[in-house]
Each structure stands twice: as C-alpha cells, then as structure tokens.
Amino acid sequence: MRHVLCLGLERMFCKAGSGPCANEQTESYAMLVPSHIARHDFASHDLVQSAPGAARLAQRVDDQMHGLRNLVAEMANVLQSGADKHPGRLGHLLLQTRQMVHNGFRVLSEAGRLRAGDAAAAAGDPERVLAQTHAWTQLTQRLHHMRLDLNNWAAVETMLRPQTDGKRRPLIEPLSKLPSTAETRELVSDVLFDQIHGLLNQLTQSQEVLDNGGFADIPLAQSLFLRSVHAAKRCLMAMQKHDDTRFLDVGCGAGIKLMSAAPFFDYCDGLEFDAGYVQLAQSILRALRDDSCQVIAGDALEFDNYDTYDVIYFYRPLREDALLIEMEQRIVEQASAGTLLIAPYRGFEHRAEDLGCAQVAGQLWLVGASPRMATQLRRAAEKTGTDVLLAPLSNVPLVWDPLIQASLQNGFAPKMEARNMYNQHNA
Ligand SMILES: C[S@@+](CC[C@H](N)C(=O)[O-])C[C@H]1O[C@@H](n2cnc3c(N)ncnc32)[C@H](O)[C@@H]1O
C-alpha cells in the first residue's frame, strides 16, 4: 500500500461519462484521438463537403483548446515563479480562462444542431451519410474530452483562487486559536490513537535497551506529531525540495509515527534499538504493504546516516540527559545544513542555539541556521498552501495538468467542496 491521498479526481473524471476509464492508461489526449488524423480528416476538402458542420465544429474545438493551452502554460509559469511575485497577473489570467471555459460550453452546445444539419444534407446519398457518420464519431470523442476538461474547471479554479490572495497561513496555530470543535476532535483521535497503539504494541521493553538508557515505546500525541510534520513538509516546499523527500523517526517503536508520516514524504525510515519493536513494526508495515516505509535496526548513538534525511524526528528515545545530549549532538553533526528537526520535548530549546539550530515554529528546528534564516523560512513556508499530502495526478490527462502539478508543489490542490458539488451535480 502506498500512502498517497488520492484527490478523488479519477472518479470525477469518469463521472463525466465520456473519458476513458481510470484504469485505462492513456498518455496524452493525442492517444485518445490521434490529432494528426483528426485534423487531416476535418480539414480535408472531401470532409468539408460531406460534413461541413463537423468540420466547422472541429475547427472551433481546436481553437478553443489551443487558447486554453496557452492560458494554462502562462498560468503555470506564473505559479512556478511564485504567484506572489506577480500580484494580479494570476487573477487576470483566471478571469480570461473562466470566460474561455464559458465559450467552450457554448461551442459544445452547438454540436446537436450542426450534426442534425449534416445529417439532413447527406440524406439520400449513402456515401455521404457514411462519411459524415464517420466524421461525427471521431469528433464526438474530441467533444467528450473537451467536456471533461471544461467540467473540471470548477475544481481547478478552487485550487487557483487562493493562490491569488498572497495570504500567509500559519505553520502551526497555537492550540488556543483552534476552534473548540477542532480541539475536541483532535482530543478524541489522540485518545483513540493511544488505544490503538496500546493494542498494537503489547511488548515490554527489552532489558538491553533499558540498560542502555532507552525509553519504552511511549507515543507522542498524534495531533502534536501531525502539526509538526505538516509544518515541516510546508518548509520543504518553500525550500523547493519536492522530490525524494526523506523522513526519519529516531526510536520508532511500533512504527505508528512512520505510517503517519508516509502520506507527507516519499520515504520514511524508523530507527529502533529494541529488537522486539523492530520485528513488530516490520510486520505491521508488511501487513499494510507499505513499501515507502522501512525500519532500521540500530542504536541512535551509533547510527551514521543522519545526513541522508530532510526531516528527523526524535521524541526523547533516551531517558538520561547525558545520553540524550550525545544523541542530539550526533544528529546535528551529521545532518546537512537545512535539515529540519522535530524535537518535541523539554530541554531541546535550551541547547538548540549551541547546536547551531534555530526555531522555525513550535517544535520545528532548522539545522545550521541563524534565527533570521529560520524566520525567513517560516515566512516563505507560510505562503505555501496547506494541501501537502502526496497526491498523484489523475491518469486521465487533462488540459489543466500543468496547473495542477505546479499548484501541488505550492501546497494547493483542487478543493473537496468543489468535488462534492460536482459529484452531486452529476449523480
Ligand atoms: C518515547 S518512544 C517514541 C516512540 C515514537 N517515536 C513516538 O514518537 O511515538 C522512544 C523509542 O525509542 C527507542 N529507543 C530507545 N533507545 C534507543 C536507541 N538508543 N536507539 C534507537 N532507538 C531507541 C525505544 O525502544 C522506543 O521505541
């Protein structure tokens, strides 16, 4: 199982009842309707003679899609160079696109009338009937795909609109600012996670780890963990680290935090000293068929690969302060500048400055950085959106794909409300 949050777009696309099914792998629109054939056919003199309505509509579809592609390319450029650097430009392009989508629906609405006209003109001439039937069958596929593109505009617009406001969205809201409803929900799921953790890990800590000053598998509250992980992922986005993002949980116990981090990062590793916990976490991950997470058996005080991670999380694996400090020093010495640390326990904040780490927000720290650099990073990350979970593009290609790709890299995805509205509308 790969922990990706599907945007649910496939379902949306198939709901249009027109495009290929989600499991049909099509590489491009051109594969659906080879455009050179279609264009050649529709432009040919014979076809213009035998199905003038189809030829006219095909030309208008081509013009429409060409215009949309140009707008999409321009908007994707703006998004890639940072929407906030071009205030107003994205909003302007958005308005133009909305108008063009509106025109597109008008073009589609003419199909029935033009087809009836071609049929009437061909009546009584079997060869011409055949030619115009063939032309309309081909064109219908293109119309279906265009409708699919246009129908998805509403969802794409909900993704683009918030990128025009230049607003900052806090990395971690203080608990006091959470709506009381959300606070209650977090509390309930924290208790539930604790219970599930208790059920999953009924092992007692091995004597070896206890003798070496280790803590047992005591979980950090799930909601606190997710806050920091979410903030860390937005920082990576602000740093333009989009690919092969790597997360490490030092002392992962049964591995619940690994699984929780999996939707955010490409690879999640857990380092664990207790052999029983290692086996348990491995068997849980195997059962989930999660190949993005792995458990490494080893001692945090001897591990040599801290430099290969973008985000390192450690929730006090060691009881004794002296050992904990030794581990912190080892991590920071090895980790590259720009690595993010999540250290949610008392004491780290007093040592952070000496370790060359600066606070970004909450329990999130930046290695090899001054407070000014950490503030700059926080500000940049606050400009990213909050939709940070790994999400594949739909396997049905759409004219909007470059926009979706660029927006996802900035933390903005098509919104749920639009999807729901769309699904209700098409039910
Ligand atoms: C407080 S629990 C944290 C569990 C989990 N990471 C979480 O946040 O919910 C500490 C974990 O660190 C492990 N541990 C203790 N000493 C360790 C060491 N020297 N190296 C690696 N892991 C260690 C323990 O076995 C335990 O699973």
Mean pLDDT: 86
How much helix is in the residues? Answer: 55-70%
Q: Please compute the radius of gyration using only Cα atoms.
A: 27 Å
Biggest sheet statistics: 7 strands, mixed
- What shape does the CA trace take? elongated
Please give the alpha-carbon distance between the first and last residues. Answer: 29 Å
CATH architecture of the largest domain: 3-Layer(aba) Sandwich
Could you name the CATH topology of the largest domain? Answer: Rossmann fold
Give the number of domains: 2
The CATH class of the largest domain turns out to be Alpha Beta
The low-confidence runs, each spanning 5 or more residues with pLDDT under 50, are 1-40, 421-427
Number of strands: 7
Relative strand content: 5-15%
Structural class: alpha/beta
The side-by-side strand order for the widest beta sheet comes to 3-2-1-4-5-7-6
Helical stretch tally? 19
Helix and strand element order: HHHHHHHHHHHHEHEHEEHEHEEHHH
Bound molecules: S-adenosylmethionine
Fourth-tier CATH superfamily name of the largest domain = Vaccinia Virus protein VP39
What is shown here, in short?
55% of the residues lie in helices and 7% in strands. With 427 residues, the chain is α/β, with parallel strands linked by helices. The protein has two domains: 14-23 and 30-168 and 400-426; 176-382, Vaccinia Virus protein VP39 (Rossmann fold, 3-Layer(aba) Sandwich).
